[in-house]
Every structure is written in structure tokens, then in C-alpha cells.
Design brief:
alpha+beta; 6-stranded antiparallel β-barrel; 6 strands; 31% strand
């Protein structure tokens, strides 16, 4: 089965984002200008479980009482797989590196609750994550399996 033109376009767009947009966001977060993006972005750094290589990527986060929560689309990213069962990491949060431990949250209700919080964010950010219309509770519950939640204790 061959990919459709739309699938090929999405793949190319994803590669462009990884190569340029992610690098630009990461550079800003590492610079003195980090407050421009630090309000909901951090740099995640971890060692791959199988490869042992160090990876870094900018990620959306939300603060919690004991750390942060990371939310990512299940099919569009792979970094979260390193945190199944828990894994050590470092985050560059508001200009400071901090050590922590991340664990994938398997509870779909927790994912739905977090998606509900995301839907209440400023319109542009929630549109980027969830689509143009603010979703109903039923749509959020239906979308939960498409996302992965990683809880990070710092």
C-alpha cells in the first residue's frame, strides 16, 4: 500500500518541523530570551533506553505540585516511549536545568482531564493542539487515546 500525497506531505512537514522549528525553539529556551517561550515550553533531555544516546527536544509542559506534566501526540512523536515504566531525565525549565524522573500515565481519564485543561488555554495554543474548534467533553474523551501524558517529578 502506498502513501497518499497527503501522508507524504505530513511526513515532509514533520521533518521540517523537527529540523527547523524544534531547533529554533530549543535555541530560544537555552538563551537569555527564554522567557518568551518558557511559559509553557521546556527542553527535555534524556538518554535513550536502547541506544544509550542523549536526546533533547522542546516539549509543551504544565506545572504540577511536584513537577510538570508533558503532553504529546502518540503517533507523531516517539520520545515518550522511553518513559514507559519510568526513566530519569533532565529538563531546562525557565532557564535552569533540573533533574527528574518521568513516567507515562496509562490512565485515560487523567489524559482527558489534562486535555480539558489544554482546551481552556489561550485560543491559539489550544487550536494548535486540538484543532480549530474548542472540543466538547465527548470529543476530548474520544481524543484521549491519541495523546500520551508523561508525569515528571523534579
Amino acid at each position: 500500500m502506498t502513501d497518499s500525497p497527503l501522508d507524504r506531505f505530513a511526513t515532509i512537514a514533520g521533518r521540517i518541523e523537527q529540523r527547523f522549528a524544534n531547533r529554533l525553539v530549543e535555541r530560544v529556551l537555552r538563551s537569555p530570551a527564554h522567557p518568551v517561550l518558557s511559559w509553557h515550553f521546556l527542553v527535555l533531555s534524556y538518554e535513550g533506553r536502547r541506544s544509550g544516546r542523549r536526546f533533547t527536544t522542546p516539549v509543551l509542559y504544565w506545572p504540577t505540585a511536584d513537577g510538570v506534566v508533558l503532553l504529546t501526540p502518540r503517533e507523531q512523536t516517539v520520545w515518550w516511549k522511553n518513559f514507559r515504566g519510568g526513566h530519569d531525565l533532565r529538563v531546562l525549565l525557565a532557564g535552569n536545568w533540573r533533574a527528574g524522573h518521568g513516567t507515562v500515565v496509562a490512565d485515560e481519564r487523567a489524559v482527558t482531564d489534562h486535555l480539558t485543561r489544554v482546551a481552556r488555554l489561550p485560543r491559539r495554543l489550544s487550536w494548535t493542539l486540538l484543532g480549530r474548534r474548542l472540543p466538547s467533553d465527548d470529543r476530548l474523551r474520544a481524543a484521549a487515546p491519541e495523546f500520551v501524558l508523561v508525569r515528571v517529578s523534579l
